[in-house]
């Protein structure tokens, strides 16, 4: 099992949670192909809206990747991104700041946001456990 953090605005994450899917890196397929069935996936949302200045800086979703390959989806506006199906867990949003010194990904990093610049990052099992515990899934 691997664990991953995708980066997207909270409103985009909410759409994915409602539809049972994830998209990363502006709909590119290659990053989604790195994720396998059974992998844990999380979303970090820097903002509420795409391109907005309305900071959220929180983990906004946690789930398990489902069987199957990434697939294309026509959004109806000319944008046809790749998606991957995910079983989202019932979790609460958790601000990242209290976790910064507990996560291997960000511990000791003054510029911790740089870790998320590529849109999808693999994380350690320890980090996945810490994030999931903080999000308190109601399973």
TrEMBL record:
NCBIfam families: PRK02268.1-2 (NF002616). It comes from the Bacteria. InterPro entries: EVE_domain (IPR002740), PUA-like_sf (IPR015947), UPF0310 (IPR022996). It holds the Pfam family EVE. Residues 4-133 form the EVE domain. It comes from Rhizobium alvei. Belongs to the UPF0310 family. This is UPF0310 protein Q4481_15675.
